[in-house]
Every structure is written in C-alpha cells, then in structure tokens.
Design brief:
Bidirectionally degrades single-stranded DNA into large acid-insoluble oligonucleotides, which are then degraded further into small acid-soluble oligonucleotides. It holds the Pfam family tRNA_anti_2. It is found in: Cytoplasm. The protein has about 475 residues and is an alpha/beta fold. Among the domains are: about 100 residues, OB fold (Dihydrolipoamide Acetyltransferase, E2P), CATH 2.40.50.140; about 130 residues, Succinyl-CoA synthetase domains (Rossmann fold); about 55 residues, no CATH class. The chain is about 45% helix and about 20% strand. It has a 5-stranded mixed beta barrel. It has a 5-stranded parallel sheet with strand order 7-6-8-9-10, sandwiched between helices. It has a 4-stranded antiparallel sheet with strand order 11-12-13-14, with no helix packed on it. A hairpin with a 4-residue loop joins strand 2 and strand 3. It is flat. The chain starts with 16 loop residues before the first helix and ends with a strand.
Length: about 475
C-alpha cells in the first residue's frame, strides 16, 4: 500500500530553531562540561560592558570565547592578540545566533599553569571563608603610616617621593621585611602581629601599607601566601596593599581593606595633595573674604535704614501724647454711646415686661379655661349619645352571629372529655362520655350506640 501523506503518527517531531539550539547547548554543557584549552589569542575585544570577547586558535582550528566582567577583573595577565594562554571554561552554545563558544572562567599565561591553578583554588577557598570581606575605611589623611617593604627597593623610594610631594605632614615608619622568597611571607606575618600589638602603645599609628615593585608571578608569590592573607584579614589596623604593577593581582590585594595598582598609586590614595588643599584653602579664604565683605555691606545698609527710622525722643513723646488724647476722646464717645444704647434697651425691656405681666397672663389663661369648659359641656352629651347608639348596633350584630343564639333555637354542641367538638358520629365510640352544651345549661351523656347516616356515615345514640 502506498504511504499516506496525511498519516504523520510515525513521523519524527519537527523542532523549531530555538528548540534545536537549546538541545545542542544542553548536550554540549552536559557531555563536555568544564575543560582547559590552550591556544593563541586572536581578535581580543573589550566593549564598554566590561566583558572580554576573543578567539582561541591553533594551526588547524579556532574557538570563540567569552570572558564575562565578573571573572575578567580577576585576570592578572594582560590579554593581547598573539599571546599563548590556557583558559578554563564551560563549553556552550549562544542560542540566538547558534554560535558554538567557550564561557571562560579563568585565564593564565601558558607555562604558568600550575602556579595560577593553585592561586585560583586558594583564592576560591579564602573567598568562601570570608577572608576577602575587609572593606574598612582608611583614615584620610593618616597621622602615622607604617610601611612594610624592602628598605632598598624602588617601591619605598616611589612611596616616600609621593608622600613628600603631596603630604609631608604624615609620619612614616618603614618596617624592613623581605618581599621575595621563602622568608618574605613569615616576616610580613610577624611584622603585622607586632604592629597590631604595639598599636595600643601608640594609638597614632593608624594605617599599614604593604608594598613592593613589579615582577614575575614567582617573584610576587609570597603575597599569595594563605597565612599572610589571613594575617591581613585579622589585622586591627587597616591595611592597604600596593604590590606590583597594574596587571598584578595577589591574595594580599583581596584580603586588604584597600588595594592600589602600584606603590605610587597607593601613596597617592593614602594622602591628599597639599597643593590641591592649599588651592582649596585659597578658594575658601576668598569666599570667606567675599562673605565678610557682603555681610559688612548688608549690616551697613541695615544701620543706615535704622538711623533713618530713628526719631528724637521728644517727637516720640509728643506723638504718644497726641495718640493718648485721641484715644481718650474715642473712649469718652464710646462710653456715651454705650450708655445711650443701654438706656434704650432698658426701656424696650420694660415695655415688653409690661405687656407680659403675670396678672395679665393669668387672666388670659382663665378666659381660655372658661371657653374650653363651655365647649366640653356642650359636646360631651352628644358624643356619649353617639357612642351608645353605635354600641347598641354592634351588640345586635354580635347577637345575630353568636353561637349562643343558635343554641337558643334548640341546637346543642357535643364535646368529648378533652373539650373537643364532636362533628361526626364516627368520631365517637360506644360507652364514650360526652357533654352537650345547650342554650341554657349542660348535659352529661354516654354513647350507647352508633348508627349510619344516609350519606354513608354512621349516626350515634347517646344516653343521659
């Protein structure tokens, strides 16, 4: 039988492009997962969003990569076209365009893989423990700066030069420690502990700066020591880390309260620029001078205005006397007018009182009472006669419909011992006691027999 085009029960399901890309992305993420890939950087792009997009390639293939902003800030090495790097990431697919790509989590220069991998593992563990949670504000400017660094390195010269140029008032104490090699981390940890214990003896010590110049990853490895990061985290004195160049990032940077990209930048962040402060003071002095001048001018105008308003005491007294005389005249006229008004009011009240004298009111009330008594005597007999006539009519109507009137014509009402009216013979039984109510009096009866009536009912006989 030829196939029927309308029978689609066995046909495979038809997917949309979106559904297909979703399945492909899920398959890539589940089957391949996280991988390390080594290759050459190409087409490195850094848009304003902060993400980094690039292509990783070798001799025969290339791979699109995306390094998002949240992870890009932890990449210490610069990313330039032509650099050979190792990247760790999750294989995925960008569904809107169907692009196969690698979502990068970490980047390291090829050849430094073991150190960087150890760095990433230790950084993740310390971050999970909260060792990187320090963010205390640094005193600005500090009174006494404690610098942990090599006394012979270029970093201390840069720091002292910047401090002298910007804010020579700060007191600086150099704590000489090695900044490279196996002895560096223990020496810095010991110095941090000593400075924190001595802080109670000299409260003016308020900031610690840990610094050194740039170098290779191995040169800066002492600043990635786990115990040094914990010592910085637990320091009661706030700590700034200024290690290496701008691209160098160490665990000491994350554990410190503040981080500077270079030793010079750290010194600039710690103290203000005295020239800017002097310039600001000059501006403030100019503003103060202008404000004082404006205030003096305003007060001088106010004084001139008050002087113009000021009058001789004699003139003021004469004006007050005239005002008092005028007030006395107004008071006298007001009193006369008030007395006249009260007199008129008194006369009016007297007239009203005479019209409403109690004797007159009693006389008027007596007259009204006499008239009401006369009307009562005239209307009462007529009303009584009218009500008697109406009552007689109602009595006659009531007598006409009264059951007693029916009984008076010879009829009787039978009742059982419960006081219920007997209407049918069938409602009685032989020997049952009944009571007959007559027009005058009552009879006690006993049923001796029951007889059927003409309409099928039974009639009853009763004996007295």
């Amino acid at each position: 039988m030829p196939p029927n085009d309308s029978d689609t029960s066995s046909a495979p399901p038809v997917l949309s492009v979106t559904e297909l890309n979703q399945r492909a992305r899920q398959a890539l993420e589940q089957d391949v997962g996280e991988v390390w890939v080594e290759g050459e950087l190409s087409g490195v792009s850094r848009p304003s969003s902060g993400h980094v997009y690039f292509t990783l390639k070798d001799e025969r293939a290339q791979l699109r990569c995306a390094l998002f902003r949240t992870r890009a800030r932890f990449v210490a090495a610069p990313m330039r076209d032509g650099d050979r790097v190792k990247v760790r990431g999750q294989v995925s697919l960008f569904e809107p365009r169907g692009d196969y790509q690698l979502i990068v989590e970490a980047v390291q220069a090829a050849g430094e893989g073991e150190l960087l991998a150890a760095f990433e593992r230790l950084k993740a563990r310390l971050a999970a423990e909260g060792v990187f949670a320090n963010a205390r504000p640094l005193p600005f400017p500090p009174r006494h700066l404690l610098v942990l660094t090599s006394p012979t390195g270029a970093a201390i010269r840069d720091v002292l030069a910047v401090l002298a140029a910007r804010w020579p008032l700060v007191q600086v104490t150099i704590i000489p420690v090695p900044v490279q090699g196996r002895e560096a981390a223990p020496a810095m940890i010991s110095a941090l502990g000593l400075l924190n214990r001595q802080q109670t003896l000299d409260p003016s010590r308020d900031v610690i700066l840990i610094t050194r110049g740039g170098g290779s990853l191995e040169d800066l490895w002492a600043f990635n020591d786990e115990h040094l990061a914990r010592a910085i985290f637990h320091s009661r004195l706030p700590v700034m880390s200024a290690v290496g160049h701008e691209v160098d990032v160490t665990l000491a940077d994350f554990a410190a309260d503040a981080r500077a990209p270079t030793p010079s930048a750290g010194a600039e962040q710690l103290v203000p620029d005295r020239r800017e402060r002097l310039h600001r003071l000059d501006r403030l002095a100019d503003r103060l001078t202008r404000a004082e001048r404006g205030r003096l001018e305003t007060e001088a105008q106010r004084l001139d205005h008050l002087r113009a308003r000021l009058r001789h005491p004699g003139e003021v007294l004469a004006a007050r006397r005239l005002q008092i005389d005028q007030l006395e005249g107004r008071l006298g006229r007001a009193m006369q007018a008030r007395l006249a008004l009260e007199r008129r009011r008194e006369n009016h009240l007297r007239q009203r009182l005479s019209l409403r004298s109690p004797d007159r009111l009693v006389e008027q009330a007596g007259q009204r009472l006499e008239r009401a008594t006369l009307r009562l005597h005239q209307t009462l007999p007529r009303a009584l006669a009218r009500h008697r006539e109406r009552l007689g009519g109602l009595a006659r109507e009531l007598q006409a419909v009264s059951p007693l009137a029916v009984l008076g014509r010879g009829y009787a009402i039978l009742e059982d011992d419960q006081g219920r009216v007997v209407r049918r013979a069938a409602d009685t039984a032989p020997g049952q006691a009944l009571e007959a109510r007559l027009g005058e009096g009552r009879l006690s009866l006993t049923v001796s027999g029951i007889e059927a009536s003409d309409d099928g009912d039974r009639g009853g006989k009763a004996t007295e």
